[in-house]
Write a structure and sequence with these properties.
Number of helices: 8
Low-confidence stretches: 130-134
Protein name: Brefeldin A-inhibited guanine nucleotide-exchange protein 3
Organism: Culex pipiens
Strand content: under 5%
Largest sheet: none
Length: about 170
Amino acid sequence: SVWLPAQLLRTTSGISTVGNEDTVVNVLRLFLSMACSQTCTLNGRLLIEVLSKCGECWENGSRAVKAASLAAGSQCLRAFCMFLKDEAEEILRTGPAGIINVGMAAAVYNEVIPVMQWLCSRLIEPTTGSPKRTDTAGSLYLMECILTLVTALPPDVHANPHFTAFLWQKFCPT
């Protein structure tokens, strides 16, 4: 169900501004538990919200908060990719034989494109503040998220032409 993750995200909207480190870490642990739960489902929109909250905590947090933020964000990405992989396998398993192929089942990976777009757009946003500052506060977090997402995707994602075209356009522009 997407109801519980959506409610959890709404009730923890101001978590990055809480001064108590233990509270922030515990909420991030809750995100981590949610990602590991079989009963909670994340869609692309909810995943972006989770990654955004984890990123805010990472930017403003101590070393413990940064570790918890990265763990929660990474695990949510892995769980999302596993959910999509299971969904693609289910389509192949239950679809009419000879009609559904790997390319059609790989269409479920279209959900990854907005997540990857969001991560990339956050990474290239102009830096505010000092003109000499070349690195945004959350660029390491975002790079780790991109790495986790790319490594967690199964090989059959390459059968999705939209995802492949997106990667070429984003990372190898002409």
